[in-house]
Amino acid sequence: MSSRIYLSSPHMGTLERGYVDDAFASNWIAPLGPHVDAFQEEFARCVGTPHALALSSGTAALHLALQLVGVGPGDDVLVSTLTFSASVNPIRYLGACPVFIDSERTSWNMDPALLEEELAMRARLGRLPRAVVVVHLYGQSADLDPLMAACDRYGVPVVEDAAEALGSTYKGRTPGTVGRVGIYSFNGNKILTTSGGGMLVSADGELVQHALKLATQARDTAPHYQHSEVGYNYRMSNVLAAIGRGQLHVLEDRVAARRANHAFYAEAFRDLPGIQFMPEAPWGRHTRWLTTLTIDPEAFGADREAVRVALERENIEARPVWKPMHLQPVFANFERRRGSVAEDLFRHGLCLPSGSNLTRQELERVVEVVRAVPRKQGLRTAG
Ligand SMILES: *Cc1c(COP(=O)(O)O)cnc(C)c1O
């Protein structure tokens, strides 16, 4: 059997090893250290924000972000329903209640009109949420201007979950740097990886200082160990920050490679009926972190699941689009506003292998399998 093709696998550049060797040579094998400081500064410059804090994961970053904008027990937090569960779990860590908002079809991200409607209704009832979590899915920014305008109108802080969107743009800015706080992830499948890690960014230096303190067991400034708040152990290690510094150098290459994958698939499936790629919205650059498409079973001659199973049979990893959070058993008891767009994208959506290290032959293998599915399905129903 041919070797496995993964959805999105780590892709090291040429400088990571040198930075890691330096961490070893200097014996900075610790959480904290010169690579952590440098990674934070270089990352902040890269995305265009004054302050960045390197953390152990994107989930940890989101947990701190939500706490620092004031989310606590019993609060409501509005969040995109079409996302990964890590966008929502930290809301629950804080004892707050997620309210799931449907997507629009241009970017697959939170629908600004629906958000505005929900906030207006809640303002009338005196039940404004403590925060709104805007997620930027699959390498593309949500439509931030109207989302920010709606939240500003009611004084609700925006936390941006840009875990999947590093390298994308929104009208020349980087998603994650527009709201009150933003977070990124360096998990193994993301566009850049430190094997595991995250970053919190904000223009508010005091907020980031406080996040740093909470992430370091909330030590007060005193020579002895003194604590007046409950803290966490959420900092990134100097060794992993060394990997991150190397990865930052190749961000533009990684975006170009992922966009080239998408262009290859788009060209290869141009003549296939019933296949539609996730649109690239007019407001910025989609990194195509994952190439995602929807399959209309009537027109294509096979459904999403048949395509996924056919790929798996050939040792190729493909995944359905995120199952909406309002359909997850763990969040079944929480409110939602509509959800049919997210449900439709889940039912018909598929993510294709999208790594920046895929070879031409691997892409061709994927294309060949996908193209053969309707024919095989036809034979099966005929037989
Ligand atoms: C990956 C991801 C996260 C979590 O990041 P980790 O670093 O894995 O904790 C959060 N939100 C979204 C949308 C993600 O894709």
TrEMBL record:
One of its GO terms (molecular function) is pyridoxal phosphate binding. Keywords: Aminotransferase, Pyridoxal phosphate, Transferase. This is GDP-perosamine synthase. Pfam families: DegT_DnrJ_EryC1. The active site is at K190 (proton acceptor). Belongs to the DegT/DnrJ/EryC1 family. The keyword Transferase applies. InterPro entries: DegT/StrS_aminotransferase, PyrdxlP-dep_Trfase, PyrdxlP-dep_Trfase_major, PyrdxlP-dep_Trfase_small. The modification N6-(pyridoxal phosphate)lysine is found at K190. Pathway: Bacterial outer membrane biogenesis; LPS O-antigen biosynthesis. It catalyses: GDP-alpha-D-perosamine + 2-oxoglutarate = GDP-4-dehydro-alpha-D-rhamnose + L-glutamate. It comes from the Bacteria. The keyword Metal-binding does not apply. It comes from Corallococcus coralloides (strain ATCC 25202 / DSM 2259 / NBRC 100086 / M2) (Myxococcus coralloides). Its EC number is 2.6.1.102. It is an enzyme of class 2 (transferase). Its cofactor is pyridoxal 5'-phosphate. GO terms for biological process: polysaccharide biosynthetic process.
